[in-house]
Design brief:
Blueprint lengths: L18 H39 L7 H25 L1 H21 L3 H27 L7 H30 L2 H5 L1 H15 L18 H30 L5 H29 L1 H19 L12 H12 L2 H10 L6 H26 L6 H23 L6
Helix pairs in contact: 1-4, 1-5, 1-7, 1-8, 1-9, 2-3, 2-4, 2-13, 3-4, 3-7, 4-13, 5-9, 5-12, 8-9, 8-12, 8-13, 8-14, 9-10, 9-11, 9-12, 10-11, 10-12, 10-14, 12-13
Length: 406
Amino acid sequence: MTLSTTPQFDAPRYGPSRDGAAREAWIRRAACTAAAAVLQLDGTLITVALPSVARGLGVASASTSIVLAAYFTGYAVMLLPAGGLVDRFGARNVALFGLVVFAAGAAGGALASTLVVLTATRVIQGAGAGLVSPAALAGAVSGFPAERRGTALGVWGASAGLANLLGPVLGGALTVLLGWRADWWVLVPLAVLAGLGILRNLPDSPHHGSRPGARPVLNRVVIAATVVAGLTFAVMIGSFYLAEQYLQDRAGYSALGASAVLVVVAVLVSAAAPISGRLVDRSGERRSALIGFLAAGTGLALLCLPNLALDSPVALGPLIAIGLGLGMLFVPASRAALNATPSTAHGRTSSVLSIGRLLGAATGVGLAGLAISAGATAQTLHRALLIAAALCLLVGIPTAARLRPS
C-alpha cells in the first residue's frame, strides 16, 4: 500500500517570509547536485577512454566493458547499507566519506598497470559512489515541500545531462592530449571540490535520528519508479557505450570526434529535465514518464532503419527525440518514489532508486559489450538499438503508467 504521509522538512514551506529558507534549500540542493554530477561525469568520461585503455593495456576492446561493470557492481553493492547510514547518521557525513573513497579509487585507477588492477580500483570507486548517491539525493530534496520537488529535481536532472555533455568532451580531450590516465586523475580534484561544497552547505545532523529498518520503503510506487529509473539508465549508458565503440572502431573517429556526435543527446537531456520537473509538479509523474519513453523509443527505432548511419546528418532527428525523451525520465521516477515515502526513509528510498539505475546501467553496458564482442558493425549497432527501442516502448510505457499522479 502506498504511503501518503506528509514529510517533515528541514526548511518550512515557502512564503513571503521564508526567502532565507528557500535560498538555503537551493544552495543545499546545488551542493548535493554537484556531488552527484561527479558520479554521473565518471560514467561518460571513462566510456570515451575505454578504446585507448584497451590499446594501452594490450587487451581486447570488448573486454574493457568490465571496467564499467566493476564500477557499477561496487556502486550497487554499497547502496542498500548506504541508505540506512544516511537515515541514521545524516547525508552530510555519509557523502563526505563516500567522496574520499571515490577519490582514492580514482587515483588508484590512474596508476593501474593491468586490467585486473584497474578493475579492482573501479570497484573501490563504485563503493564510494554508492555511499554518495543516496546521501546526495536525500540531501538535495531535504529543504523542499513535496509539491515543489519536481522543479528542484528538474535542476538535478539538468545537471546529470550537463555531466553527460561534459563527460564525453572532457574525456575525449584528455584522452587525445594526455592519455587515458588523465581521465582518472581529473576525478580526484573534482571529488575534493564536491566534498568542500557538501562540508560547507549541508547540515551536520542525522536525518531526524531515524533508525534503519524502522519503516519499510518498498511499495507499488517505489517499485514502479525504480523500474523506470533502471530502464532509463540501461538505454542511456548502453547506447552511449555502443555508439562510442562503433564510431571509434568502425567509423574511424578519434575519441574526441566520437564524443562530439553524442553531444546533441546530452544537451537535450539537460534541457528537457527542468521542463519535466515543471510538468511533474503541475500534472504528476505519469505524463512526463510516458512522454519520455515514447520519444526515446521512437527515436531509437528510427535509428534502426536500414542504411541509416549513426554519423550521418539524417540521424540528427532521431537523436533529438532520444535526448528529449531521456531528459523527461529523470524527474518523475525520483519524485514519485520520494513522495511515496516519509522523509525519515529518504536515504533508503534513494538507495533503492540508485540500485535500479546502476543495475540498469550495468545491464546496458554488459549487453552492449556482448553485442560488439563479434565486431562493432552497423548491423550489430542497429540490432542493439532495436532492443533498446523495444524496452522503452513495450516495458517502459506500461511501467510509467503505474506511476501515480500528484
